[in-house]
Amino acid sequence: VFPSLAQAQASVANEVYRELGQPSVFLFCPTEYCSSLCSPSPSKSCYLLTLGQELLPEIGVIWTGPKVVSQELSATLLEEVEGVLQRRPVIWDNLYANDYDCRRVFLGPYTGRAPGLMARLHGLLLNPNCELQANFIPIHTLGSWFQSELGSCAHPDRTGMETAAGPGDSQCPQEGSYSPQEALELALLDWVAEINRQALEPGR
């Protein structure tokens, strides 16, 4: 019926979206959901180009970055993805996912994400460790990164590098930068307090 997989998927997604009454949040995960799965590249992928043209503009598209588990996310890559999908992507961040190797638990701070990324995102989902309590630091430091992004007056240029606010921008705080190490220390302080609080609960 359809000339390509992308057109089939877009048609079904659009129909479901309409049938559900066009909800405010409706996410589509493409078959090519990271750069390493694209042939030959995101900007030249016939599959992604078709999705960008055929999917209704209100439908969010999920993207994991250069790889399924991406150690770094750059504004340059997100700009490329936005161009081909004709919308800002929703990042599905697998930085802490350990379902592929449950012998490992990831407890480090949220890191490897360039400053100024929020302006290029439609949203961000964090795929956590399978062990619930192990996600305190990941989620806490993600919150610190998010607050830093909200408070930053940085303006990402076309290369994804941060451009500092000028001397005349006195109403904007220039700190706004995210420090993974500082975020980790804050998270550890709060985690120890939470552990101590739980230890005092009856039956613990």
TrEMBL record:
GO biological process, one term: glycoprotein metabolic process
PROSITE patterns given in the database record: GH84
Highest taxon of source: Eukaryota
GO molecular function per UniProt: beta-N-acetylglucosaminidase activity
GH84 domain sequence ranges: 1-150
Pfam family, one: NAGidase
InterPro entries according to UniProt: GH, Glycosyl_Hydrolase_84, O-GlcNAcase_cat
SUPFAM superfamilies: (Trans)glycosidases
Region (Disordered) location: 157-177
The protein's name: OGA GlcNAcase
Organism for this UniProt entry: Ibidorhyncha struthersii
The gene coding this protein: Mgea5_1
